[in-house]
Write a structure and sequence with these properties.
Elements: H1 4-23, E1 38-43, H2 60-77, E2 81-84, H3 94-103, E3 107-115, E4 125-129, H4 135-145, E5 153-158, H5 162-165, E6 171-178, H6 182-188, H7 191-210
Parallel strand pairs: 1-2, 1-3, 3-6, 4-5
Antiparallel strand pairs: 4-6
Helix pairs in contact: 2-7, 4-7
The protein binds zinc ion.
Length: 240
């Protein structure tokens, strides 16, 4: 007869086993870093999922879409094929985003996010990857973004976010600054800054594929302020 405590332990041990076997998907990862001709551009959040709470910047879902659209256009100007997981304010589940990416052979996947923290002093850029094949692309994106004046370096790290760990092709997730920080969040509200973010990410992708110095900075997209509707202070748990 098991005591209450050991029955509890056994329960959690079984639960751990079950959850491991259901969440561990074994994707066979492909290294397309030297061959890719397609970039899947993933604008984080959307629809009912606003993303990071708005303090100094617009809602995350608005700025991720804007940067993604600019990135999409710049990559096309650089002769890549592109696929956007969303091109309007709609909710797309994470697994569906992954599936869209995995359907594009000879591709890489770039997910655009902005960050949030309870500590308003925290600021800077973070880039994540899961497949070791994506590490150099993540490093390059981070390095290029850090050439933007005022951006702080919070590092490049492996992470098990769903859009990364279940991806067949090299996938990275870029956190383009903290909306909870006055400096980062204020910049995120500027179309010029968002264009620069997209430009640096685009440059990194082109250089990863074709080598340094081949990127022609495309023409800037005209841009006013992003729509910033009243009542958009939605507090949604950031999902990625
Ligand atoms: Zn996010």
């Amino acid at each position: 007869m098991l005591s209450h405590a050991s029955r509890g332990l056994l329960f959690f041990a079984l639960l751990a086993l079950v959850s491991c076997s259901t969440t561990e998907t074994t994707v066979s990862r492909k290294n397309t870093l030297r061959t890719f001709n397609t970039v899947v551009v993933d604008a984080g959040h959307g629809g009912k999922d606003s993303g990071a709470s708005r303090r100094f910047g617009p809602p995350e879902k608005v700025v991720t879409l804007d940067v993604a659209q600019r990135l999409n256009r710049k990559l096309r100007e650089s002769q890549f094929k592109t696929v956007m997981t969303r091109s309007s304010d709609v909710f797309i589940p994470l697994d569906q985003r992954v599936a869209i990416g995995n359907r594009q052979s000879n591709s890489v996947f770039v997910s655009i996010h902005f960050n949030d923290s309870r500590r308003r002093g925290i600021r800077g850029i973070e880039t994540y990857y899961s497949s070791p094949y994506a590490a150099s692309l993540a490093q390059r994106i981070q390095r290029k973004l850090l050439t933007i004046r005022g951006m702080a370096n919070r590092g490049v790290r492996p992470a098990r976010f769903r859009v990364l760990r279940n991806a067949v092709y090299p996938s990275v997730l870029v956190e383009c600054g903290f909306l909870s920080n006055r400096g980062d969040g204020g910049r995120a509200g500027s179309a010029g800054h968002r264009d620069l973010l997209a430009d640096k990410i685009s440059e990194a992708i082109v250089e990863e594929r074709y080598g340094a110095g081949v990127y022609n900075a495309p023409t800037r997209m005209a841009g006013g302020a992003v729509p910033d509707p009243q009542g958009a202070r939605t507090l949604t748990a950031p999902s990625r």
